[in-house]
């Protein structure tokens, strides 16, 4: 088995995590810009469901915690976002954490603040927008954590070159939230596109709209002449997923990098038939043609959608198999114990 962590020479930890997950006391700091269906929130809920005590700090409700060095707050898109330890002290005193998690949004601790926490808590940083924000944000905050998880495989060796104990974050879903719900008549459609209008999505979106009854939700579409139904959150997302014959998940970031998207796991768990780009990384989580549908280009995407619409029984088998795979192998409740076990196993890093 390949080594999970990329790391430099070790110095020895001053803090180790408890052997039992139920003895973990986590202070989880992060913001939820997508509301009740935000990935950061569901990661926090999954850790709590796995048995750890979790004290939640939602930075959207606590702007006084954030130091952006006089830049506009943009969730780490253009620079690091430092946590003000003095403003966080009440939460630290209330939770008495042995694990502090700074989850996404470019969140980090300045070196002196990290040293103040380290004698009593393991410091874990998480990036969910790599590699797009690596140069501007995450490479600056990562060196001050005891371990760092990134959503981008290409960034693991880049962190390692900085001397950061880094690993690839396993992507998962929160099955307590993402589940099938009854469809809504006003949301019924053949194809659902749910997300921001990245450059690689414009041409296939136009092709889908021209050929199928397609509903588009998200930001940036209207400026390309593609009508968007706006932003949806919470139960409306579940209803949209269950009202479409197929839901398309594109695999590129705004910066053009291909990644395994959390939507694959969330949408499958919600009961959607997921159609996505073919990628070797995705094959480690789902089987194309059996649990999800794959395509290599716009022409194949159109052919694929036509096929599943003409063969509803086959589409239903794939949909059910995708949901079963997500619930069996890819939930945050199951992922967190594995993450924490690996953190404990690396107790001699720094």
Descriptive overview:
The longest helix has 18 residues, at 312-329. This protein has helices spanning 39-49, 85-95, 111-117, 134-141, 156-161, 199-211, 235-243, 262-270, 298-310, 312-329, 332-345; strands spanning 25-30, 53-58, 66-67, 81-83, 99-103, 107-108, 122-127, 147-150, 166-168, 189-194, 214-217, 244-249, 274-277, 293-295. The protein is of the alpha/beta class. Helix content is 34%, strand content 17%. It folds into two domains: 21-172 and 332-345, Rossmann fold; 185-329, Glycogen Phosphorylase B (Rossmann fold). Helix 1 packs across helix 11 (332-345) and helix 8 (262-270) crosses helix 10 (312-329). A six-stranded parallel beta sheet has the order 2-1-5-7-8-9, with helices on both faces. The chain has eleven helices and 14 strands. The chain is globular and about 60 Å long.
Number of helices: 11
What fraction, in percent, of the residue positions are helical? 25-40%
CATH 2nd-level architecture of the largest domain: 3-Layer(aba) Sandwich
Low-confidence stretches: 1-13
As for the CATH topology of the largest domain, it is Rossmann fold
Overall pLDDT metric: 92
CATH class of the largest domain: Alpha Beta
Question: Which value, in Å, is the CA radius of gyration?
Answer: 21 Å
